[in-house]
Amino acid sequence: MDTARGRLTRDGIRLYEPGDFAGMAKAGQVAAQILDEIIPLIVPGQTTGEIDRVITARIDELGVKSATIGYKGYKHASCISVNHVVCHGIPGPKTLKDGDIVNIDVTVIVDGWFGDTSRMYVAGKLPRKAERLIQITHDALFKGIEAVKPGNTFGDIGHAIQSYVESNRMSVVRDFCGHGLGRVFHAPPNVLHYGRAGTGPKLEQGMLFTIEPMVNLGRPETKVLADDWTAVTRDKSLSAQFEHSVGVTADGFEIFTLSPADKFHPTFST
Ligand code: MF3
Ligand code: CO
Ligand code: CO
Fold it and tell me: How far apart are CA 59 and CA 74, in angstroms?
C-alpha cells in the first residue's frame, strides 16, 4: 500500500501539504494527552512496567495504535528511561525511588499519522543538579525549535541546541538523533542535536520531523546494554531528554505535540 504524500527533496526529505498538518496535530495531541494523564503515576514505589501498562490501556481505549509495539521487535507502548539511561529504557519490574528523573517517550499512530513526544518527570523530590539538567534540556529543545523556518538549515537547529547546552557546561549526546516522520515513524533526515550553523539540508515548508535532544551532566558518550535497547551514559552521569514533533510552515514552525494541559514543562516549576 502506497500511503506516501507530497514530493521528495533532493535530500530525500518528504514535503507534505498544508492540509496534512491537521492529521499530524491530531496524532501529536493524542500522544501528548497520554503523557499528561500519567503524571500522577510517577511516584516512588511505582514500577516502570505498570506505567507502560496504563499507557498501553489508554492507547487502546482511545482507539489509536502504538507505533513502538512490534517496531524492530520492541514489545512496549513506551520507552521509560530513568536517571543515567539516555533513551530506549524498557519498561519492567524496576521500581522508581525518591529523586529519580524519568523520561517517558510515546509514539502513536492516528489515522495513519505518527505523533512522537517525550518529556521528563520526577518521582518524589527533585535533586538540585537534576533540576538544572532538566531545565537546560527543556530550553535546549526550544532553542532548536525556534531555529525552524524555511531558509534555515538543519545545522542551524543542531547548532542552537549544542551551543546552548555547552555554554551551560553540559553535553549533547551524539549517538541518537531526531528524525523525519509523518505517514512513517522514522524517515530522512537525521536531525542532529549538534552541528555548525548554515550546514545540512535547507528547511522547507511541509517538512515534518522530531527534535529530541538528549543532554548529559557528564560526558556525551553512551553505550547500549545487552538487552540491545537500553542506552546509558558511559560515565553513569544523569541524562535528560525532551521531544516534540514539529512541521515547517510558510514562516516558521508548528508544534504538534504541545501538552493539552500545559504540563510539558517539568512539573517542579509549576
Ligand atoms: N520514540 C522513539 C523516538 O523518539 C523511538 C522508540 S523506538 C522503540 O524515535 F522501539 F524503542 F520504541
Ligand atoms: Co522520535
Ligand atoms: Co520518541
Answer: 16
